[in-house]
Amino acid sequence: MFNLVSLLVTAALVSLQCSRQAYALLERPKLIHHNNLESNEIPTPRRRELHKYVKIDQGLPEIITNPELPLVLQCVIWGKPAPVVTWLKNGLAITDFEEDSNEIFSSHPTSVAGLMSKLVVPAPANGDVYTCVGTAGSKQKTNSTTIYTDEDSEELELPTAPLITAYYNSILQVMGSSITLPCRHYSPTKAQVYWLDRDEELIFDNSRMRVLPSGDLHIKDLSFETDMGQYTCTVKNSYGTDTASTFLYVLRG
Questions:
Q1: Of 13, 23, 141, 181, which one has the greatest count of Cβ atoms within 10 A?
Q2: What is the pTM of this model?
Q3: Alpha carbon 4 to its chain's center
Q4: How far is CA 26 from the centre of its chain?
Q5: Domains (range + CATH), the chain
Q6: How far apart are CA 159 and CA 127, in angstroms?
């Protein structure tokens, strides 16, 4: 009799344990479904994206200069997408006044870049206000300077060598896209523009690379393996040369 009772108690305990295990197995999928997770799966972290921005790294100081001598103003702008620059004279676009001024060039929406922009003022006038306007997407920053002339200031030699007025210090852009590396320049006489690639080889026009009439270098279908590196623009006239380098970072998609 005692053995029969023991067997019945043991059977009841085993049945209870099996019921608990079955209940746990039934509830586990509900818990996984509730948290939108698959079993043994680790969520993939999201890549942080850099928001659009623009900033002027070097401002324009007030300047005292000789009105008989050309003046060079410069402005460094960083931004995403790669910034463009407009120069103003007394609040109006500089192209309304000067023929030799910086032009606006387009940029890729995914790019990040630092742009050096210089403006040559052939005949500075007392009280003129010049403004550098940096634009990246919908973001914009400005910086201004006032010119003061002094006819008794020290005479300087007139600049006759060319001057590169716009180029990227560096730029980041995704592979597979196209990019234009600016090399705008000022030269009082006819100038020649040429580019060296990342291997310091002279770039000739081909199916992927082309030097534009403005002096800019256009590259199609960017490749991580073959295009990332430093590119150098040289402007030369009969009186001298000027060079500027851009480091191109090609990002994998």
A1: 181
A2: 0.72
A3: 85
A4: 54
A5: 49-97+106-156 (2.60.40.10), 158-252 (2.60.40.10)
A6: 23
